[in-house]
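Risk register update: the risk of archive-format incompatibility is retired. Evidence:
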Amino acid sequence: MKFGILLGCVAIGAAMAADVPQADITNGVLKAKLYLPDAQNGYYQGTRFDWSGVIASLEYKGHNYFGKWFDKYDPKIHDAITGPVEEFMHDMKALGYDEAKPGELFVKIGVGAIKKLEERQYKRFGTYEIADTGKWSTKKGADFVEFTQELKDSNGYAYIYKKTVRLTKGKPQMVIEHSLKNTGKKTIETNVYNHGFFMLDGAVTGPDMVVKFPFEAKATANLQGFAELQGKEFHYLKELTARGSVHSEISGFGPTDKDFDFRIENKKTGAGVRLTGNHPLSKIDFWSPRTTVCPEAYIDLKVEPGKESKWQLTYDFYVTPPAAQ
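Archived output:
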């Protein structure tokens, strides 16, 4: 009976995912499924992460790199989201939050204009009322999806944000291209990071996983005996428990984009991915529970009215011989 109920819940979850707007793309080497922005039916409707470029799965040579890492799903939950997704913030808050009065609007790029509550401080992990999601449009090809969000004036902020997820022809490579044009009256000063949510073959976070940096990395927090940094490599000393997690900022990177270069590998299955960016890092926040590994790379943006900023992330997927067991 319990098994039947479990199967029913799985079937309902699969049906729910099948009903949301989505797109499949391939370049003959990689195959990916993306969820598309939609205020009523979208897989993600929270107010933390950018709605565009949500990747449900990506496959290469029988290995999968992203997936559902969380237990409870609700489209309004702040982190009920998969794949390499981004969050825009300014001083750990939403854009314009401090200057907005209760009832006025502040902005989350990739989400829209949000109504400020009567509250003591910004709730980053909460879900707010969205007053205006802007105008979303999507263009799809065989190997790419292009997302555009245009937000009109919201308390002086307005922009055109574009993101293209593209699979490089004939290569195990994915490129995410971004552009942010300021069409408002106020300067957009923000940082943005990609959370990653890597799930290399669905492995439990533990000794089989390793993260590699191009610099001598140091953890600023106590890793509580779960992990350690060995020169340029982040190693787990034991499997994380269901309630366990590792969280620390990582220092040691330099002022140029050459240090925006990480590798995450599953030593047991051989699945690996290299992530590089074309913008200098401003911060690395490393977080991983039992189900996902996330080196979160932050960059700073300052876009004056009438100006445009562009940046790019490149993912190279590979498979190495599995480590001897």
